[in-house]
Amino acid sequence: xxxxxxxxxxxxxxxxxxxxxxxxxxxxxxxxVAQLCHHDILTFDEIxxxxxxxxxxxxxxxxxxxxxxxLRKDLEHLIRMIHEIDGIHELTMTTNGYYLEERLEALKEAxxxxxxxxxxTLDEGAFENITRHEGLExxxxxxxxxxxxxxxxxKVNCVPMKQNEKDLCQIAALAKEYPVHVRFIEMMPIGxxxxxxxxxxxxxxxxxxxxxxxxxxxxxxxGNGPARYYSFPEFQGKIGFISAMSHEFCExxxxxxxxxxxxxxxxLNYGSRWNLRDFIRSGASEKQLTEYMYxxxxxxxxxxxxxxxxGCEKEIRKMAGIGG
Length: 324
Ligand code: SAM
Ligand code: SF4
Description:
alpha/beta, 11-stranded mixed beta sheet, 11 strands, 15% strand, globular, binds S-adenosylmethionine, binds iron/sulfur cluster
């Protein structure tokens, strides 16, 4: 559908849980966060109702996220249910990769079309400092297996900051060694992210060019959204940048988000006034749900205003509660 600023909205990110086994320093406090109770979380049937209304509104691409989505029981079953909805063209997932390896075949079989694995560093010590968890080897092994069993699209996501600055070229080189795209996501001042200084696109790009040669911008569109991609000589995959801070892309933003407890979020930086779980549980029909979602999405804010929005409009959830 088209929103009030003439943007086509065709991509929905669904958080299926607020829980996570990792405690990434910029995302989750060490002691964790108060968790949603079982009753507050959208059921699979409610998620399917929302997906069906979303498809009616022209949303054809869905990303499953969290918290850590693989902690949601029977996730493969949900993936299959979404996959079976007519009109879903892409069904992808973003994960920290820790529990992925043993689930890959089942996910592929259920209909997943792409998996993004978050890897901020390939240095074991830095990995443990950033995630406050062991397991780099398990995560890299998941990446290798996702490529080996030919998940249609495999990507690596990395958030650059002081804590992994020295490791970024090595992370980028994953796209040389493997046929995967590596994307650098600029740190956004949401939740704990406000306490971290990110490293921005231009600095990383020139560092990479010094080592790997001239970067050529790609013309074709790859993936769901705002990433700008570059190719480097002898790389199998591309290097992408999602640069919400240094190269704002709100004018072309195509996405909305659903939190695990049913809030429809129209922009990462704004709190939500639209709870779809409560609307469904009040007995709304499919037609009413679709109309409600239309009204919400139509009013998607024009810009994230990360550096301007303060007070009651601003999102106060942590990123793990939103889904990134
Ligand atoms: N646990 C899964 C994972 O790590 O991929 C899915 C949820 S996580 C919130 C989704 C993505 O958001 C991850 O790639 C993570 O690095 C990113 N993220 C979390 N906080 C962020 C922030 N403040 N700014 C930018 N990206 C952030
Ligand atoms: Fe968990 Fe992903 Fe947040 Fe890390 S970024 S704490 S893996 S939800």
